[in-house]
Amino acid sequence: MTNDSLSQLTLIAPTYLRGNILLALNLYQDILSVFKVISFLIHGIQPLLVPICFVVAWTVIILVVLSLFAAARDSVTTAKQMHQIPCTGCQYFTDNYRLKCTVRPSVANTEEAIDCLDYQPKTNPYLY
To answer: Mean pLDDT, to the nearest integer, of 87-92?
Structure first.
């Protein structure tokens, strides 16, 4: 809408609506000026958008790969530590989920059992 048509509209409108029309006109012009500023900013940033998106995309990919490697490394470290638990090769280990070890049941199959002083290797696995 042009200013001429809006001024004609305010002349035709009843008196009680003229203030609302002027407020709407001011709001319309404010919104239009905001869109002009946004459009100017977008056109100014546009040549930089492709390099910025390229760098951001590769940064995200590199961070995901690094976090996957860190998770794999931590998993391997935990697995190596868990494989040092000697309980399954001990003669006091029962393979019963209620009583795993007859000497130290609270320590059986935990990291505390790695240096267990009561560990005795099975001499004949058919007897246990």
So the answer is: 87
